[in-house]
Specification:
The protein is built from no helices and 14 strands. With about 180 residues, the protein is mainly β. The model has no long low-confidence stretch (mean pLDDT about 90).
């Protein structure tokens, strides 16, 4: 599978129970199309958008990306980092669907929330994430529209990023790896 921007076809969304999720608050504003590439495995990532929109339950948080589970990989231009490793003062590569920019992290906030397990496919490669069950957590549909994770249905197509699994300390390595 070629690395880079990809379309993920949603297969299934199930309740995962309560767990710890991480919100990453940047020390700068993010556009509505900017966000982070988030995934449970190194095979691919969902483009999780900034909370730069008003919802029924939340005002806009133009500086925030809700990354979901603390275990997630965050894909940058060359490396990955774990959501659990991010702290204020770090910087991260932010993705807007085509371009990258570097932003300073103001803080990372951990809280217990109800989570959803999101499963999809890039071709035949399974791509998963554990995201907060909230109308403020949005993905970018293939069409360019924002979609709250709670509104996604099997068959929906969202923007993502394909990758080759196999990382050590965030850097790509060649090895046998099977992630489930």
């Amino acid at each position: 599978m070629a690395e880079g921007k990809a379309v993920i076809t949603i297969h299934e969304i199930t309740e995962a129970g309560t767990g710890t999720r991480v919100c990453i608050d940047m020390a700068d504003s993010l556009s509505p199309t900017e966000g982070l590439l988030i995934g449970s495995t190194g095979s691919g990532y969902y483009h999780v958008l900034s909370e730069n929109n008003e919802t029924d339950t939340y005002p806009p948080r133009v500086f925030r990306v809700n990354t979901g589970g603390i275990h997630h990989y965050i894909r940058e231009t060359e490396n990955t980092v774990y959501a659990s490793e991010i702290q204020g003062g770090h910087s991260l590569d932010v993705f807007d669907g085509s371009e990258w920019s570097r932003k300073i992290v103001g803080r990372a906030k951990w809280e217990h929330r109800v989570l959803l397990h999101v499963s999809g496919f890039i071709g035949k490669q399974k791509v998963t994430a554990v995201l907060q069950q909230s109308d403020s957590v949005c993905l970018m549909k293939e069409s360019g529209e924002r979609a709250a994770v709670i509104d996604l249905k099997p068959g929906d197509k969202v923007q993502g990023f394909a990758d080759t699994p196999g990382r050590h300390l965030g850097k790509q390595i060649e090895e046998y790896i099977e992630e489930k």
